[in-house]
Amino acid sequence: MTDINAVVSEVSKLRLRLDQAQLSYRDASLKSRREIVILKRLISRLSVACRGLDSELDHKLAELRSELEQHKDVSKLIPRLAIIERLVTRQANFTEKETQRLEQQIGQSGETLKRVHGLPAQLKRELRNLLGQPSETLAQTHKQVIRILELYERALKLMAVSSEAMVKKDSLDHDLQLQLTSELQRLITELDFDGEAGDKLLSIRNQLLIGATPQNLIELSLEVLRQVLDGTRQERRSSQQFLDSVNSDLATLQKTTNQSVGQSEAIYEHRSEMTSELADLATSIRQGLSEQKNLEHWRPTLTELTKELLVLAERNKALEKRERALIEQLGFNENKINNLFEQTQDFRRRLNDQERKMFLDNLTRVYNRAALNDRLEHEYRRWLRYQHPVCVAMIDIDHFKEINDSYGHLAGDKVLKIIARTIRQMLTDTDFIARFGDDEFMIILPDTNEEERNKCLSKIRETIAQLPFRFRDQNVSISVSIGATLFDGNDTPTDIIERTDKALFSAKSTGRNRMLWIS
């Protein structure tokens, strides 16, 4: 009896534990289902919140949202979630870049608005406060955009009701006028048109050096555009005429060559037939001479064979005549090919000259900004691969505007040419120099140690300071300021240019005629 009670007691305990386990599993299952429901709801709401960012992402999220609403198993949606994850990552990278561009545009737009004449002090203070506030989130950036648009709207309304703005509505901003003048001069110096177009562009450049009124500046700008278009059209016509001539000659050569090949094959076949016939005749004659004892009886046959030989001789003469004509045709083709080769070589030389002129500054004869961008990109890629030291330095002529104002722009051009030549002579074959701006030069010193690059830049600065300039019977001393840096860390070519510009600004701010490094 005692054993039965013990068994009953153990069974009761086991049943109690089983009931508890079932309750725990049910609670865990309910909790898991609630979490899955919450997760589905969160994903659906996030997909709605992300709507409009990217059409492909919208489509994928809509499909996912539809399947979640149908209460499908989440585990079966893992591949689709992986695709959406990649799209979201791509969109995040794109959004980050666009946000950076937006922030840059805010800064540029703010600086542009600052230069507008006649803005009230209150608006300027609000603009300074707006630009001085860092934007840490995309929402703050959007607020800045909205705010700067509001400031622009206020500025436009103020300008619309300002009588001074109405009077000056047809005039150009002074800073923009100077910038346009400088850009036109740079464009003209980089163009190398011959003939009337080149003479007109040179005349326009001389007028720009002397100075032009706003109205005259617009007329000169339009004239430059006309000359550029005319010169480009002329170059295009010349190139098209050359290509048409080459195509026509090549078509003629192809036709005559095909004819010559056909004639050569026909002559070869005829000569083969004649050789076979001649061999047959020779065999017949040899057999006749060996078999016939009485040649008088064989004379008629020999006469017929002789006639056939004469016929073969005439046919051979005709073939020789065709061969002479074919040789003459081949000689004509050879001359035509030689002429085409000379034409293409001449055109290639012209293209090489144009390419060289395209990458050279017309005034200083050093490389221009386009060539600098190419070389800087090349050195950047080499630096990424080999991690060798690359020094980039910007050289600016101190008080260059005063030289132009005091002694004329021709004197300024002479200074630029002499300094450019001096710098180029002090560089090695692997170094690089280009004209970066009006009175700025940028040099690249690859694979140099600290001592070598410091010595090179210091020597450039000291040598230029000792150059003997003389204008209008006056001895003039000219110095340069230098800002330099090295590729480092996560630098890009844009970072390098900005850093050298900062270093140059610091060098000029601390007294000029000095060199300053920045990292």
From TrEMBL:
<feature type="coiled-coil region">
    <location>
        <begin position="302"/>
        <end position="357"/>
    </location>
</feature>
<dbReference type="InterPro" id="IPR048516">
    <property type="entry name" value="DGCcoil"/>
</dbReference>
<protein>
    <recommendedName>
        <fullName>diguanylate cyclase</fullName>
        <ecNumber>2.7.7.65</ecNumber>
    </recommendedName>
</protein>
<dbReference type="InterPro" id="IPR000160">
    <property type="entry name" value="GGDEF_dom"/>
</dbReference>
<dbReference type="GO" id="GO:0052621">
    <property type="term" value="F:diguanylate cyclase activity"/>
</dbReference>
<dbReference type="InterPro" id="IPR050469">
    <property type="entry name" value="Diguanylate_Cyclase"/>
</dbReference>
<dbReference type="GO" id="GO:0005886">
    <property type="term" value="C:plasma membrane"/>
</dbReference>
<dbReference type="GO" id="GO:1902201">
    <property type="term" value="P:negative regulation of bacterial-type flagellum-dependent cell motility"/>
</dbReference>
<dbReference type="Pfam" id="PF20975">
    <property type="entry name" value="DGCcoil"/>
</dbReference>
<dbReference type="InterPro" id="IPR029787">
    <property type="entry name" value="Nucleotide_cyclase"/>
</dbReference>
<keyword id="KW-0175">Coiled coil</keyword>
<feature type="domain" description="GGDEF">
    <location>
        <begin position="388"/>
        <end position="519"/>
    </location>
</feature>
<dbReference type="GO" id="GO:0043709">
    <property type="term" value="P:cell adhesion involved in single-species biofilm formation"/>
</dbReference>
<dbReference type="Pfam" id="PF00990">
    <property type="entry name" value="GGDEF"/>
</dbReference>
<dbReference type="InterPro" id="IPR043128">
    <property type="entry name" value="Rev_trsase/Diguanyl_cyclase"/>
</dbReference>
